[in-house]
Amino acid sequence: MPFSLFRYALARRYPARPDLPPPSDLKRSYDVVVIGGGGHGVSIAYHLARDWGVRDVCVLEKGYLGGGNTARNTAVIRSNYIAPESVRFYAESVKMFESFSNETGFNMMFSPRGQLTLAHSDAAVRSFRLRAEVGKLHGVPNEILDPKQIGELVPGLNVGMRRYPILAGLWHPTGGTGRHDAVAWGYAARACEMGAELHQRTEVTGMTIDKDRVVSVETNRGIVAAGRVVQAVAGRSSSVAALAGLKLPVKTYPLQAMVTQPVKPFLDTLVSSTAMHCYVSQSSRGEVVIGGGSDPYPLHATRTTLDYKESLIAHCLEMFPGLGEVRLMREWAGITDMTPDYSPIMSATPLANYYVDAGTGTWGFKATPAAGKYMAEMVATGRTPDMLTPFRLDRFDTYDLTNEAGATAAGH
Prior knowledge:
Blueprint: H1 2-10, E1 29-35, H2 39-52, E2 57-60, E3 76-77, H3 84-104, E4 115-119, H4 122-137, E5 143-145, H5 147-153, E6 168-172, E7 176-177, H6 180-193, E8 197-199, E9 204-210, E10 213-219, E11 222-231, H7 237-243, E12 251-260, E13 270-273, E14 278-282, E15 288-294, H8 306-319, E16 328-338, E17 345-348, E18 354-358, H9 368-381, H10 395-398
Parallel strand pairs: 1-2, 1-11, 2-8, 4-13, 11-18
Antiparallel strand pairs: 3-7, 4-6, 5-6, 9-10, 10-11, 12-15, 12-16, 13-14, 14-15, 17-18
């Protein structure tokens, strides 16, 4: 292997080919226009081409590939939810993550290290028992641990903390992490290989509506006619939907996180506490990743704040006092679109050819494979797959909600 790398480095013509084709002009029309070049957008394009043979697809991204919320999360993957509909959906996504690297040729470094969520009250323990039983019913492993078992599982954790005494924990062994940039690039590369087009630095500025259909999409690079349009823009869902004359039941909040300097490996599991609004993991490079709940007020901005930094650090040190001398390296924020029932919207709309993938809130990354698969099926067939029926847009009119407010890794 070292000799092969050396020979590769000295070769006059590298045998490697670029992952994405060079930029091109927009065509005048496409069968499907996908607005949003994040993980969900390129996953939809990939599954349209692979599963349904729909290859005249254009993905429009106002920034760069995977540069929005896909690049601004903490890469947690899990399926330990409360509602059976959510458990089934995210369990499917976890299975798809497991085969992603072999399927796309991009190593996403999927690491199923397990997630431990701490309970600090009797109410939280009851909620965890419900989540554990619902998960087991649908084939998702969950287990309730007592403080002694928690101490053995995570030796560095302060099990005897006084302000937030640990009563129990929800252990989800199939939870893990993965490389979010590899997910976006893997789906995009394979989609373009099959005929889809990715247009970066292409912002959607308007839409032309004729009766109940979107007939064209206006961009800063020109107008393209569209047979069908899919919106997958995460925190920008409300503003893009407004261009189509739609009002979504979505509010947008910043979500902040941070990472420390690299240290020697000491934490294999993901540890979270909803009472302290904090979760902690360690990356493969040794950095300690610290995240929490959304900001308490709506805002379309990816800025970070000192008060939130102080709060996260304080709660992280409650759990892991040994990190007191570790330096903080950087902090970032994404913008999350939250629905009233904390479940996503993956649905057709009142417009006959317009589809929405929105409202994934703080768990958009972990939904990427399954969202792409089933949204592609909906767009290709015109029918709502059974998997997406609970997440249809009109559930807010019929009050047939899928409540997931209690299944966050760090309470909002």
